[in-house]
Specification:
Strand content of chain A: under 5%
Radius of gyration of chain A: 21 Å
Number of strands of chain B: 0
CATH superfamily of chain A: NADH-ubiquinone/plastoquinone oxidoreductase chain 6, subunit NuoJ
Distance between the termini of chain A: 60 Å
Order of helices and strands of chain A: HHHHHH
Order of helices and strands of chain B: HHHHHHHHHHH
Largest sheet of chain B: none
Distance between the termini of chain B: 43 Å
Oligomer: heterodimer
Shape of chain B: globular
Number of strands of chain A: 0
CATH class of chain A: Mainly Alpha
Largest sheet of chain A: none
Number of helices of chain A: 6
């Protein structure tokens, strides 16, 4: 049952990703990205990481992609110009991708083999505990410093965005 | 219980719940028309059936029989898909809502009064709500009409802004229950009837107020119904939709109202538990034990819907900048303060 669902949603995910590249209209690409995100959420769910799956849907599919589509609609972006690319790209790009995939596949198979993945070593798989409790325990004990530092990083990004978008002339204040 | 039995039982539950839900949607429309009528000192629908009770059926038949006009310049696939997303998301949310007592179980811990018991139930509802935005956003964009586009832009901005306040207002409740499972959140408030509800005993009335405001904005209802403000945008995102497609948006809106009412009931009003707690002894009969919780649940959701309509009949519409200001400058800081206060109180206790 898990294998069937995995195959189904992995295929959907890949189809979405390929469709994302081949669509010429930005809205269609954005929608394909949403398909990729939600199928990834289902894959997380199959791994037993239900909190991560929900966060994936809420944050990526529900918030970030809404902003993407919002901007595409607001700017009314037109169709993309399609170029065939230079011959050098075709000659170098495809073999490079093939080599990269082969290396990745070898490494992953070497470490783990063909089989179902366990949900990380950091989480204790006690039966009475929910996923959320385990995750928060790890986040707020072992990984406390990186977790808090990440929030500072996000704060810096927000401040940067505000500084970039701020009006320079003081007399042109909006909303007064 | 074998897999086949489980599958058949689940299918039965889904069918019953969806039929009841859609009936609820139809009669919420009637409730709104009747109530707003009385608020405006007129009768409301009263011709079809006794007290106009058959009006929703006739409305449904009318939407089915109307001519379905698709403008020629629309983006056809997205134009057709948008109402499906809107209605689909409204229908899925109800699947994780427990609406009856947990004491009445079938063989093998099978739950009769809930389609799926998920330990992140609350997050699932939030996730589906956030996907539901696409229905509105795509409808406006695919219609190729500037009123629709403006409506859907307003809707996306409003929904993303208020989702923040909505999510944050629920954190206090989750902190108190220590779980995201809707069933456990309800059981956490079931000890002393109305006194242990999160709204009163849990001191979450600030959170409830924030949730109420954010929920009105999330469902595009008055006083925050700017995406379909008829005085400036014709009908907003569904201007170009007719016949059953329009009806699907309409049903999605009222379905979302019911969903929001269910979540408010579960999180703040003690879910299916009786407001009198143990003052009234539990009835002996098995059927009454099963039906009484459903009665309380329905009553609570009904009063929430009543409040919705009452607000619509009373308050004028906000201006758009006021709406955004209110969400970001008042509701969100208030929600964060509520989280801090609740955590401090829990730590102190």
């Amino acid at each position: 049952m898990h294998l069937i669902l995995f195959a189904l949603f992995a295929a959907l995910c890949l189809a979405g990703a390929v469709n994302l590249l081949f669509q010429t209209h930005p809205i269609n690409s954005a929608l394909s990205l949403i398909v990729v995100m939600t199928s990834l959420a289902v894959l997380y769910l199959l791994l037993g990481a239900e909190f991560l799956a929900a966060a994936q849907v809420i944050v990526y599919a529900g918030a970030i992609m809404v902003l993407f589509t919002f901007v595409v609609m607001l700017l009314n972006a037109g169709r993309e110009e399609r170029t065939l690319g230079s011959r050098a790209y075709w000659a170098v790009g495809f073999p490079a991708v093939a080599v990269l995939l082969a290396i990745l596949a070898t490494v992953v198979l070497h470490i783990q083999g063909l089989g179902s993945a366990a949900f990380g070593d950091s989480l204790s798989n006690q039966p009475g505990q929910t996923n959320l409790e385990q995750l928060s325990q790890v986040l707020f004990t072992n990984l406390l410093l990186p977790f808090e530092v990440t929030s500072v990083l996000i704060l810096v990004a927000i401040l940067g965005a505000v500084a970039l978008a701020r009006h320079t002339e003081p007399e042109r204040t909006v909303g007064k | 219980m074998t897999i086949l039995q489980f599958f058949l039982w689940s299918l039965l539950k889904i069918i019953v719940v969806v039929v009841v839900f859609l009936l609820g949607v139809a009669y919420t429309v009637l409730l709104e028309r009747k109530l707003v009528g009385r608020i405006q000192n007129r009768w409301g629908p009263s011709r079809v059936g006794p007290f106009g009770l058959l009006q929703p059926l006739v409305d449904g038949a009318k939407s089915f029989l109307k001519e379905d006009i698709i403008p020629s310049a629309v983006n056809r696939p997205l134009y057709l898909f948008a109402p499906v997303i809107a209605l689909g998301c409204a229908l899925i949310s109800i699947g994780v809502v427990p609406f009856g007592s947990t004491a009445v179980n079938g063989p093998g811990g099978f739950h009769f009064f809930e389609i799926a018991d998920i330990n992140i139930g609350l997050l699932v509802i939030l996730g589906i709500t956030s996907i539901g935005v696409y229905g509105i956003a795509l409808a406006g964009w695919a219609s190729n009409n500037k009123y629709s586009l403006l409506g859907s832009l307003r809707a996306s901005a409003q929904l993303v802004s208020y989702e923040l306040a909505l999510g944050l207002s629920l954190v206090g409740v989750v902190l108190r229950a220590g779980s995201l499972n809707l069933r456990e959140i309800v059981e956490n408030q079931s000890k002393h009837g109305i006194l242990s509800w999160n709204l009163f005993g849990g001191f979450q009335f600030v959170a409830f107020f924030i949730y109420l405001m954010a929920a009105y904005a999330e469902t595009n209802r008055s006083p925050f119904d700017l995406p379909e403000a008829e005085s400036e945008l014709a009908a907003g995102y569904h201007t170009e939709y007719s016949s059953m497609k329009f009806a699907m948006f309409f049903m999605a809106e009222y379905g979302n109202m019911i969903n929001v009412g269910c979540v408010a009931t579960l999180l703040f009003l003690g879910g299916w538990t009786s407001p009198f707690g143990n003052l009234i002894p539990l009835p002996q009969s098995f059927i009454l034990q099963a039906l009484l919780p459903i009665f309380w649940f329905t009553l609570k959701v009904f009063s929430f819907l009543f409040l919705y309509v009452w607000v619509r009949g009373t308050l004028p519409r906000f201006r758009y900048d006021q709406l955004m200001n209110f969400g970001w400058c008042y509701l969100m800081p208030l929600a964060i303060l509520n989280i801090v206060a609740t955590s401090l109180w829990l730590a102190y206790k």
